Amino acid sequence: MLKSIAIRFAIHAKNHGQYFCSHVAAQSICVHRHNSSLCRHFSQSSLDERKGAESYKLALDALQNAANAKQSFEDKLLREQYDAMKRQREKTSQRNNSHKRKDTDPRLQRLNAIDAMDDGQKNIKDRAAGVAVVRTIVKQTRQSSQPNNSVRVEKWENKTVQDDGDHNNHNRESVGESLDQEHYQKEALQYLEEAALRYGHPLALVRLGNEALERAKKSSVSSIEPLINTDRCAEWIDESPITLSDILAQLSITVKNDTNEDEAFTSLAHLLYEEAGKAGSAEAWYNLGHLLWDRSDNDEVKRMKAMEAFNKAVDMGDSDAMYFVGAQYLSQQKDDAGYQLLCRAAHEYNHGPALHHLALLSLQSEEKAEFRRLLTKASEAGNPDSLFLQGYCFYHGEDGYEVDVKAALNNFLAAAENFEHVEAMVSAGAILHQGVVSPQGLVIIERDQRRAFELYQQAGELGSIEGWRNVVACYAMGEGVKKDIDMAKHIAITMLKDDR
Fold first, then answer.
1. How many Å apart are CA 285 and CA 292, to the nearest integer?
2. Do 45 and 353 contact (CB within 8 A), yes or no?
3. pLDDT in tens, 315-371
4. What b/e sequence results for 283-315 when a residue is b if at least 16 CB atoms lie within 10 Å of its CB, and e otherwise?
5. Phi-psi category of residue 272: left, alpha or beta, with phi > 0 → left and psi -120 to 50 → alpha
6. Alpha-carbon dihedral sign for residues 78, 81, 86, 87
7. pLDDT tens digits along 215-228
8. pTM for this predicted structure
9. Is pLDDT larger for residue 5 or for residue 435?
10. Backbone dihedral angles phi then psi of residue 443, each to the nearest 5 degrees
11. pLDDT tens track for 87-143
12. Whole-angstrom distance, CA of residue 246 vs CA of residue 278
C-alpha cells in the first residue's frame, strides 16, 4: 500500500511570513521583466542603445548555450557513473551467490566478510554521488516516454577526430562538451561586459551585478575567470554613459589591498545596481534593496538604506517592491501603509503574491466571499501557491468552496506543470494514481498511474521526500512503471536514508 498517497496540505501556504522574503535570489530576480519600459536618464545615441541591446541579447544566447552544454555534460557523466555502479554490484552479487554455495569453506567465508565490508564502505562513499545519479536516472526514465525531447547544443568548434577506439572517442567527447560550456560562459561574460559597461544597458548591468553576487558566494574565486576585464574596460571610460571609472577604481582597490573576496564582489554588485538604477531600472533598485537588507544584521540604519532602495523601485512602479515593502510595514504594525501598498500591487498590477496575501487576510477576518474572489484572481494571475491552495479547497470543500475534484486536479496540474510546485505535483499524482469514482460508481477522474509516477518523479527531483516515497512505492508495486525491486531499494537507500 502506498505510504504517502494522501493529499497533504502544505501548512506554509497559510503562513503570511512566507512572503516576507528577504534574500537575494540572484538567478530569479535578474531581469524578471524583459519587456518592461525603462526610463533611461543617461545621454547616448540611439545607435549605442541598439548596440547595447544587441550585445545583451548575444550574452543571453550564450548563457543559454552554456546551460544546455552543462546539463548535457552532467547528465552523461551521471548516467555513466550509474551504469558503472550497477555493473559492479551485479558482479559482486554473482560472486556472493557463488560463495554462498560453499559457505563452509573458511576462505570463502573470509571473502564474503570482506565483500560485505567493502559494500558498506562503498555505500557511504557513494551517498553524495548516488543522490545525483538517482535524480538523473528518474529524469531519463520520464523523458524516455517523450519522443524527440533531447536538447542539442550547437558546437562552437568543429572537433573532428579519427576513430581510434571507443574509450578515446568518449574522452574526447567529454572534453569537447566541457570546453563548449567554458567557451559559452566566457563569451556570455564578454558580451555582458560590453553591453553593461560600454553601452550602459540597464538589464545587462543588473545581470552583471547578479553574477557578482554569485561570485561572492563561492568559497574560492582564484580558479575563476575574472568577472571584469579591467584593461579592456579602461578603453571605454570616455564613451561609457556610466561612471565606469568608479567601478574600475573599486576593482583596483580590491586587488591592491587584497580585500575579502566576498566583500569585494558584493561592493561591485552594489555599484552595478546603482548604475542600473540611475539608468532607469526598477529591477536594479529592487535587487539593491535586497542586497542591503540581507547585510543589515537587523541594524535599523542599514535597513533604512535598504528601504530607500526599495521605495525607489516602488516609485518606478515595481510591484515586487510594493509587495515587499507592504509586507514589511504590516509586520511592523504599520497596517494602513502596508495594506495600501499591497492593494496597489494587487489591484493596479495584478501581482499574484499580493493578491494571495490579501486573500489570506480576508480569510483571517472570516470574509469567505472576499477570500474566494481574491484567491481566484491570484490563481488567474498565475501565483502557484494560490493555485495549490484553491485546489486544496476544491478537493476538501473548505473555506466556502464546494467539493470539485476535477477543479482541484486542474489547479494542482496548473501549479505543477507551469510553476514546478512540488506539493501540487504530489497532490495531482495522488489523485491520478487512484482515480476518482462517485458513490454511484461513475468515473469522475480516470486512473493514470503512469502520469502519477511522472509527477512523483518530478517532485522528487525538486527535493520532495513525499515524491521519492511514492516513486519507491511505484517501483516496488509496479504501478505506473515496470516493477523493479532493486531500483526501489536503491532509491529508498539513497534518497530516504536520512528521512526518519
1. 10
2. no
3. 999 999 999 999 999 998 888 999 999 999 999 999 999 999 999 999 999 999 999
4. bbbbbbbbbbbeebeeeeeebeebbebbbbbbe
5. alpha
6. positive
7. 888 755 444 567 88
8. 0.71
9. 435
10. -75, 115
11. 776 776 676 666 555 555 555 555 455 455 455 444 444 444 555 556 555 655 555
12. 14
Give CA–CA dist 309/301, Å, rounded.
Answer: 13
Tens digit of pLDDT for each residue in 275-299? 999 999 999 999 999 999 998 888 8
Higher-pLDDT residue of 448 and 2 is 448
Q: State the pLDDT at residue 407.
A: 97
| pLDDT for the residue numbered 497 | 74
Contact 411, 394 (CB under 8 A): yes
